[in-house]
Amino acid sequence: MRIIRAKDYADASRKTANIISAQVLLKPDCVLGLATGSSPIGTYQQLIRWYEKGDLDFSQVRTVNLDEYVGLGADNEQSYIHFMRENFFDHINIDPRNTHLPNGLEPDARHQCAHYDSVIHSLGGVDLQLLGIGHNGHIGFNEPAEEFVKGTHCVELTQNTIDANARFFENEDQVPRKAYTMGILDILQAKRVVMIVTGEGKAQILKDAFWGPVTPKVPASILQLHPDFTLVADEAALSVAKDLL
Ligand code: GLP
């Protein structure tokens, strides 16, 4: 595990964007695993700026996103497909046919999950997976559990996650209770994993995840075992773990 220390959110975003940018330059047709949430927004904004300056070309890049709410489609502003278009895809020269997310409107969970794993497989796997972390240690929507789930699956969101994500909806009742998410093995099979974590609110879970035991009760902890895992974290997020660095 490699730790890149950043001053604040803007600095962490630039550093994370630098890593992604290097990946795109080195392999123009790479497969990027992408994430939603507030953590990666600054990273996407930086990548968009470099694209606008002519420094980056996404024309051959392929993407797979981690997750999607069950029941939400592109016309719903809270869907992750909508988030990705608004915050990234609509501002760069990526071919929409090369972007992939689980289909939240597919009611047959088994079919959708098997299909999504076959999409990842058909792309040849993920070169670089970008991650955030939930307040309870979730990655994608792999919630704390008794065991790690390997492939794409349908999860019941925990109350903690529903509460954390309610800020994006008009009220808590509108937060979907289920989501499709890549599994832990899908994430671990990415050749490189980069996680961006900022803010004091994530400081305790960051310490638990990367300076505590590897356990499905803190799903992100499994990344301790990944051979090419980079954590980009700001001072506030590292404040609880600082004596262990
Ligand atoms: C959601 C997403 C995760 C993300 C998490 C943290 O639950 N499914 O992929 O990492 O939120 O979000 P934020 O970055 O807004 O704290």
Protein model, in words:
- The protein has 245 residues and is α/β, with parallel strands linked by helices.
- 30% of the residues lie in helices and 17% in strands.
- Helix 1 (9-26) packs across helix 2 (41-52).
- The chain starts with a strand and ends in an 11-residue tail after the last strand.
- The site of 2-amino-2-deoxy-6-O-phosphono-alpha-D-glucopyranose has 14 residues, from helix 5.
- The site of 2-amino-2-deoxy-6-O-phosphono-alpha-D-glucopyranose (GLP) has 14 residues, from helix 5.
Q: Identify the quaternary structure here.
A: single chain
Mean pLDDT: 97
What best-fitting shape do the alpha-carbon axes yield? globular
Strand order of the largest sheet: 1-10-9-6-2-3-5
**SS-derived structural category:** alpha/beta
Helix content: 25-40%
Please report the distance between the alpha carbons of the first and last residues: 12 Å
Q: SSE string, helix = H, strand = E?
A: EHEHEEHEHEEHEHEHE
Strand residue content = 15-25%
Largest sheet: 7 strands, parallel
The tally of strands reads 10
Rg, nearest Å: 17 Å
What small molecules accompany the polymer chains?
Answer: 2-amino-2-deoxy-6-O-phosphono-alpha-D-glucopyranose
Query: Which ranges are low-confidence, i.e. pLDDT below 50, for 5 or more consecutive residues?
Result: none
The helix tally amounts to: 7
The gist of it:
With about 240 residues, this protein is an alpha/beta fold. It is built from seven helices and ten strands.
